Each structure stands twice: as structure tokens, then as C-alpha cells.
Amino acid sequence: MGSDTVRSYIAHRLTVAGSEQEVFSPRAIDLICRYSEGRPRLVNVICDNALLEGYLQSKPEIDEFLIERVVSNLGLKFE
Q: What domains lie within the chain, and their CATH numbers?
């Protein structure tokens, strides 16, 4: 999927889950697109882990720093 499709996909999944607010910052979504390489399963894994981590940290918004941590913990970051 391209980055626009990933953005729409994330928004759709959040809507289906009952969320009416934007949970991910724009930069966080950019990183999700980058690290998932547009693969839906990886988008889901990254978002799910980020939402759990955000909940544990009582964060109102998932930012790029949290995504970087999640991606690193998942072993998806090879930089």
C-alpha cells in the first residue's frame, strides 16, 4: 500500500474500533508507513503495539518517539 492508502487504512481501522479522534500524530503515521513498507499486517502490528504502549504511558496521542521505540522493540529498525 502507498502512504495515502496506509493513512486511510489506519483511519478506517480506528473508526471501526469506535475512535472519533486522531490518535496518531502525522509524523507517527509517516513512520508507520516507512517501517511497515505498506504491508497491512505490519501496519496492524505496529499500531497495536503503539496503542498498547501509549495506553501504558497514559499518552493522549501516539507520537513519532513512541513509534520509534515500538519499531525498535519489534526488531523492524535496522539503522
A: 3-73 (1.10.8)
